[in-house]
Design goal:
single chain, mainly beta, Immunoglobulin-like, 2 domains, five-stranded mixed beta sheet
Length: about 220
């Protein structure tokens, strides 16, 4: 399989894979060829168009096997629909207390299954405690998880405490999470990126989130 000279790196044409078939066909004969479409994990949802060009490399006359000109081509369009939300679609997948930098932090993980980034402002309510964590501001990348940390103090004498998290974007759309968090887990070393203003460092895993890899329809 060869890509057209005009096909750019990462374009829909590079998502196509043809079955490896080499055959000699008699006049008017047919041969099925399978086509697989594999969009990358970060493909934006929407409708796209690619194409496959079939050409004759060589031909002979059936009556006497004499070589004849072989310049026939046929273009087959391939319409691709990448499934998913074209806009930001943010949820909160979990929260836990972790020990990092010599202090306890509340770690909140967001999942954006949409194709655009979003900024979320989250308020954490620690039930039964007057000491509340600061407001969390997180820049949530598309089609991945984003984790932020904010300083957290476990109420004295408790091993677990119920909390609720309400995150809101600029349009007023909300994502919520509630549950209990326990004593801090000790973190192993991992890459941590600079945090958004008002939040603790942000950690992005760089992978397409489980369950939200783009689907495809041809």
């Amino acid at each position: 399989m060869q890509y057209a000279a005009s096909a750019s790196a990462g374009s829909p044409a590079t998502w196509l894979t043809l079955s490896d078939v080499i055959a000699t066909l008699e006049p008017h004969a047919k041969l099925p060829v399978s086509l697989t479409v594999t969009p990358p994990a970060n493909a934006a949802p929407g409708d796209l168009l690619a194409g496959v060009v079939a050409r004759v490399d060589s031909a002979v006359r059936a009556s006497d096997q004499a070589t004849v000109d072989a310049n026939a081509t046929a273009t087959l369009p391939v319409a691709i629909t990448v499934l998913g939300a074209p806009t930001a679609q943010v949820s909160i997948t979990g929260a836990r207390v972790v020990a990092a930098g010599g202090r306890d932090n509340l770690e909140i993980t967001f999942l954006n299954s949409g194709a655009t980034s979003n900024t979320m402002t989250a308020r954490v309510d620690v039930h039964g405690s007057r000491a509340q964590p600061p407001i969390v501001r997180a820049s949530v990348a598309p089609l991945t998880h984003t984790t932020v940390r904010v300083p957290f103090a476990m109420p004295p004498g408790l091993q677990t405490v119920p909390i609720s998290v309400v995150a809101t974007d600029a349009d007023g759309d909300q994502a919520t999470w509630s549950g209990s968090v326990g004593l801090a887990d000790t973190l192993t070393a991992r890459r941590v990126e600079p945090a958004a203003v008002g939040a603790a460092p942000t950690d992005r895993d760089g992978r397409g989130p489980a369950g939200v890899a783009p689907g495809v329809r041809c």
